[in-house]
Specification:
Distance between the termini: 51 Å
Largest sheet: 4 strands, mixed
Number of strands: 4
Shape: elongated
Radius of gyration: 29 Å
Strand content: 5-15%
Structural class: alpha+beta
């Protein structure tokens, strides 16, 4: 309750002087409550606006004023999530925070590559460029990484039912790709070697 009269005993509203006095103070109290709520909102990156600068400065994110408000918030949360040891769970959490869509982390052991399969509806989600910078900070230097975006191909099949008019049949179109899923990979890391190093079975690339 934020109404001043609610803090007084039940008989006080019957007093015209008391009611007038409290009503005169109420607008100033409302401004104080509003300032308090705005200040508390800055303590969380999910609700902060003008206080995002303090988060970015403390985390060393640099100038981010040109980014969208949601992207700045996601970047701060991802930075906080990436302060632990880099594991598949940490990479997944950081990627999903930055992209806002489900991400599956796949470790390609033979090629020392980590693939982030993005469920973005066949499109590269906003925040991918900022995610690239975050991955550079948390990923081990010897690993390469890529965003993999599954794309669903719909190839129509037509059946000719009428009589043939032309003497020669037109060439039959043959689809170069079967209907189904096509993975489009966007390589984002720096490949350090073209030679795959031996990897023990069951060992994780990330730790």
């Amino acid at each position: 309750m934020r109404e001043l009269m609610s803090y007084l005993p039940e008989n006080y509203p019957d007093s015209r002087e008391t009611t007038t006095f409290q009503e005169a103070l109420q607008p100033e109290v409302n401004l104080m409550w509003q300032a308090r709520d705005e200040l508390l909102a800055q303590l969380s990156p999910y609700t902060a606006d003008w206080g995002l600068w303090y988060w970015e400065d403390a985390l060393g994110l640099g100038a981010c004023e040109g980014l969208a408000l949601d992207t700045r918030r996601r970047q701060i949360v991802a930075k906080l999530q990436g302060r632990d040891t880099t594991t598949p769970a940490v990479v997944k959490a950081v990627a999903e925070t930055m992209l806002g869509v489900p991400v599956t982390v796949i470790e390609v052991f033979g090629e020392y590559r980590v693939e982030l399969e993005v469920d973005g509806g066949g499109k590269l989600p906003p925040g991918a460029e900022v995610l690239k910078g975050r991955l550079r900070e948390i990923m081990p230097a010897h690993l390469d990484w890529a965003l993999v975006i599954p794309v669903r191909l719909d190839i129509p099949i037509r059946a000719a039912l009428g009589p043939r008019i032309a003497r020669t049949a037109p060439p039959m179109y043959r689809a170069a790709l079967p209907a189904g899923r096509l993975d489009a990979a966007a390589l984002m890391g720096v490949r350090s070697s073209t030679v795959a190093l031996p990897m023990a079975d069951g060992q994780s690339l990330l730790g």
